[in-house]
Design goal:
Helix content is about 30%, strand content about 15%. It is of the alpha+beta class and about 180 residues long. The two termini are about 40 Å apart.
């Protein structure tokens, strides 16, 4: 995993020809502003915005680290670029997005109704993005109020699971 740089993102810019996202960031130790250019490869009208954003995050981990920039912000930048270049107006991930906050509001998939092994790639990506957003909302980081390092809890199941009974363990040892 790449080492996270000591930077503070300030703002983003878009360049349309060629498609590039520019991140302006501050290096606190020097007090200087810099620009980092990230080429958006594979940008087409039908390209999945979420997949492109994840690819950008993978290719530029020091600048788009999850602690620095939210994934939904990068998805919105890719969507803006697609809208400008191709006239696309909705996210290709299949999820509805709040225009003010950029949060994914809902997806076509309800985990309780559908088997996620049988949905399309776009629907699965939308559901994963919503799950990631919920996780990021509830995640506690060092320095957050209520953060506790290495939480360990004992869980008492309401009914036996069947897979961890000692009988099976003994029969396994006997067959060896």
């Amino acid at each position: 995993m790449a080492r996270k740089l000591d930077i503070q993102p300030k703002r983003f810019g878009l360049r349309y020809d060629p498609p590039v996202i520019v991140l302006e960031y501050l290096v606190p130790s020097t007090g200087k502003l810099f620009h980092h250019r990230m080429r958006v490869r594979g940008l087409t009208r039908d390209a999945n915005s979420l997949e492109l954003a994840e690819l950008l995050r993978f290719r530029h981990p020091n600048f788009l680290h999850q602690d620095l920039v939210a994934l939904n912000q990068v998805v919105r930048l890719v969507d803006k670029m697609k809208e400008h270049l191709f006239g696309a107006t909705s996210t290709s991930s299949g999820a509805k997005t709040d225009t003010k906050s950029g949060n994914i509001l809902s997806s076509k998939i309800d985990i309780n109704q559908y088997d996620l092994n049988k949905v399309t790639e776009a629907e699965l990506a939308a559901h994963k993005a919503k799950m990631q957003q919920t996780f990021e909302l509830h995640k506690k980081r060092p320095g957050d109020p209520g953060f506790v390092y290495d939480v360990q809890r004992e869980f008492d199941p309401e009914e036996p699971s069947g897979w961890d009974e000692e009988e099976e363990e003994d029969s396994y040892e006997a067959s060896i």
